Give the backbone structure.
Amino acid sequence: MQRRFTLKALTAAVALAGAGVSFAQSGDTIKVGVLHSLSGTMAISETVLKDTVLMAIEEINAKGGVLGKKLEPVVVDPASNWPLFAEKTKQLLTQDKVAVMFGCWTSVSRKSVLPVVEELNGLLFYPVQYEGEELSKNVFYTGAAPNQQAIPAVEYLMSKEGGGAKRFVLLGTDYVYPRTTNKILRAFLKSKGVKDSDIDEKYTPFGHSDYQTIVADVKKFSAGGKTAVISTINGDSNVPFYKELGNAGLKAKDVPVVAFSVGEEELRGVDTKPLVGHLAAWNYFQSVKNPTNDEFVKKWAAYAKAKGIAGHKDKPLTNDPMEATYIGVYMWKQAVEKAKSTDVDKVIAAMAGQTFKAPSGFTAKMDEKNHHLHKPVFIGEVKADGQFNVVWKTPGPVKAKPWSPYIEGNDKKKDEPDGKSKS
């Protein structure tokens, strides 16, 4: 259903590409596509990423732009509509002729965009943690692969310091990222001796708002032994889920919840006092202390106030996908300058090994082969003020493994993109 548009749209677009349509520079500017949901269920998470791209562009333009040209953002709203992401991608590449796109949050939106960006040889920077099991020459993944978030988080929950969980509820939104991540986690847990009867897997649709029954079921399941919840709920459903946890009195000391898609922004609309001690696993938190992050948070606060960004002008918050977005924009800039061109193939080659001093306090590095960042991993506990207290972290950046070793056959897959996406 999501790809019904492609044949007709791509035939026209490929014809344009064959006629010499350039996705590079237009006059005195270089056009940059911003492809994030500004309405619908994912707007709660994605709107701020659009603003992060615009902030980075403004900073770069203030310092002379790229290759002597100013960056010109082209912002579109795919409106949490997965096929519309593909249509907007086609528009950005064939009509607006952008040199690069920064966008998507959900994996279903990314997979909708993928055939278009590959057919038209566009370039997408994807800034959110995801399930792995994909590699495309036209995509750079600046969020976490499972071994940089999901696996370390579950290892922590099973450890003595993390509470020694023996039973697990895998609770997610019903689409590709939660289902594939949970397939990986189920295989991982099995490798650690956890029985199928000690794993409860549940899914809800996008925009789901009634979690009373599910939270009651979790409470009942937890009576069978030390239990933890691994949440891959995405978008605005997180607000009613966390409110119901508070209503049910399900405290972190009894049944800890570790979330992979909940950060500072998603907790903004929630009374976090009953949630103190619940966990999130990311590669960055606003609360990490280092000079680079202090500067990043300060710049964002000033930008949000100057632009009157809703919510942030009074209470500026940063989060992991914002950091991943910011890194992506600057790494692309560096690659263009190294290549001395916005030509996609030249920029892709120049991206290998790019580094950037990240707000996490570590130097992020783009792997020379697999289009993923080397990133640190942090596990944070929710504090009463909606920030996170880091309780565990890796000693340094972790190299991404796009192909999980817990999925059968992945040992034979090549760890570098080769033509069309492999998944």
In short: Confidence is low (pLDDT under 50) at residues 1-24. The CA atoms of residues 128 and 143 lie 4 Å apart. The first strand starts at residue 25 and ends at 26.
